[in-house]
């Protein structure tokens, strides 16, 4: 243990903050690592291009082009990530093998994901989470899936959703940990629609059909709302109000993505609005810059505030944390590690705040002292505690040289 850590620990103790408790607590909080940072969200099932109102930008060399490459990159990145990790998969990352070209997304089964289970176990992931993939696929008709007026299209996507929930149950059982399933669809219109209710009624019906009889023991479903997508600016079927009501009524969860609200709205503010009504809620931790740009997560004010809301409300077991960013303009391994570490940092930072004291001051309406305390807490020696957190996991802060070595040896050879 470094002297700097020991001194810092004492400084925190004087503020009434238990550093050891914080270190233990953060280590246990699962963060789900999205597989899609490694290959620019393309997947393995042949789509070849990203559609559905989302976009990756940049052409940094070294994108994982095969399942083997993606697994190698992810395993490499995961080794540099402290804390408890889960693996977050999309259905488009199926290993189709001899079924390639023969079956479609409505027929995927657990066997197409079994290699991921072996990988997750070998690489130390504590569980697997899953997402049906309702985008980048020829069966998306006029930008619609579950809300399509074309009954065949709608039914196809309901079947894909049901297949995904069945796969999730098996993933949950195989990992011995319930599988969180996030439902996000791109459905929307570029220009002002003449019927807003029709699509929403169809989405409601589709979700009802999709969720009928899913395995409640092993699957935790959620719906992810958003405001708009690129090319779908005027109307989003799965809006925030729609899904919050749907989830409450259906007994499933809401997922809030940090990039899916109007520019001055923040998800940190919304956590406490859902906690009184839901047993759990889920997050896509992302960083929107001017729009839902999915920049790599960094330790900014909103991330700290988000973590504080989880920690101060004693909600670490009620908030399901998943990462959702994809940057193709920088080294993708570094993007993964930086984003994941930022989340870990924010959680540790939140545990190291004088939370009790601050709450008391608010209740006493002593807003002067509250401001002074909060500003003071910002300059406590957080970095020394972070270094110790890493050291206890055999990691160090300076991860770039290693990643650049991998870039030179492995990534740069991918032409
Ligand atoms: C899109 C949503 C969605 C996707 C992933 C790939 O706006 O945020 O969560 O980013 O499912
Ligand atoms: Zn998201």
Explain what the structure shows.
The chain has 415 residues and is an alpha/beta fold. The chain has one domain: Alpha-Beta Barrel (TIM Barrel), CATH 3.20.20. 41% of the residues lie in helices and 13% in strands. It is built from 14 helices and twelve strands. The protein has helices at 3-14, 19-28, 67-79, 114-122, 151-175, 197-211, 240-250, 271-274, 301-312, 332-351, 355-363, 367-377, 382-392, 400-409, and strands at residues 30-34, 84-90, 128-131, 179-183, 188-189, 219-224, 235-236, 253-257, 281-285, 287-289, 291-295, 319-323. It has an eight-stranded parallel β-sheet with strand order 3-2-1-12-9-8-6-4, covered by helices on one side. Strands 5-7 form a two-stranded antiparallel sheet. It has a two-stranded antiparallel sheet with strand order 10-11. The radius of gyration is 22 Å and the shape is globular. The model has no long low-confidence stretch (mean pLDDT 97). The structure holds L-rhamnitol (RNT) and zinc ion. Residues 224, 257, 284, 324 line the site of zinc ion (ZN).
CATH architecture: Alpha-Beta Barrel
SSE sequence, one letter per element: HHEHEHEHEEHEEHEHEEEHEHHHHH
The count of β-strands is: 12
Into how many domains do the coordinates divide? 1
Tell me roughly what share of residues is in helical segments: 40-55%
């Amino acid at each position: 243990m470094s002297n700097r850590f020991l001194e810092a620990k004492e400084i925190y103790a004087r503020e009434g903050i238990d550093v050891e408790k914080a270190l233990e607590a953060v280590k246990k909080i699962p963060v789900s690592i999205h597989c899609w940072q490694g290959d620019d969200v393309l997947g393995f099932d042949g789509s070849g291009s990203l559609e559905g109102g989302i976009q990756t930008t940049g052409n940094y060399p070294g994108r994982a082009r095969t399942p083997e490459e993606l697994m190698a990159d992810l395993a490499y990145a995961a080794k540099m990530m402290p804390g408890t990790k889960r693996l977050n998969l999309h259905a488009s990352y199926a290993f189709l093998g001899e079924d390639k070209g023969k079956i479609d997304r409505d027929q995927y089964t657990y066997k197409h994901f079994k290699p991921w289970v072996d990988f997750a176990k070998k690489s130390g992931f504590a569980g697997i989470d899953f997402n049906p993939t309702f985008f980048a696929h020829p069966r998306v008709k006029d930008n619609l899936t579950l809300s399509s007026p074309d009954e065949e299209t709608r039914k196809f996507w309901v079947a894909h959703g049901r297949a995904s929930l069945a796969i999730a149950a098996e993933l949950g059982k195989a990992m011995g940990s319930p599988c969180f399933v996030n439902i996000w669809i791109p459905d929307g219109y570029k220009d002002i629609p003449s019927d807003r209710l029709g699509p929403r009624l169809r989405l409601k019906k589709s979700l009802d059909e999709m969720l009928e009889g899913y395995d409640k023991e092993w699957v935790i479903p959620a719906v992810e709302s958003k405001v708009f997508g690129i090319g779908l600016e005027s109307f989003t079927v799965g809006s925030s109000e729609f899904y919050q009501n749907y989830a409450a009524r259906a007994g499933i969860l809401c997922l809030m993505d940090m990039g899916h609200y109007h520019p001055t709205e923040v998800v940190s503010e919304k956590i406490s609005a859902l906690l009184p009504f839901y047993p759990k809620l889920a997050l896509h931790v992302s960083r929107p810059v001017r729009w839902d740009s999915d920049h790599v997560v960094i330790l900014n004010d909103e991330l700290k505030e988000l973590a504080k809301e989880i920690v101060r409300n004693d909600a670490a077991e009620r908030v399901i944390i998943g990462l959702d960013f994809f940057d193709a303009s920088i080294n993708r391994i570094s993007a993964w590690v930086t984003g994941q570490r930022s989340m870990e940092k924010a959680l540790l930072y939140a545990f190291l705040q004088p939370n009790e004291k601050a709450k008391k001051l608010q209740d006493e309406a002593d807003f002067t002292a509250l401001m002074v305390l909060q500003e003071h807490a910002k300059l406590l020696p957080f970095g020394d505690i972070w270094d110790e957190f890493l050291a206890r996991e055999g990691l160090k802060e300076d991860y770039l040289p290693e990643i650049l070595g991998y870039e030179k040896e492995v990534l740069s050879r991918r032409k």
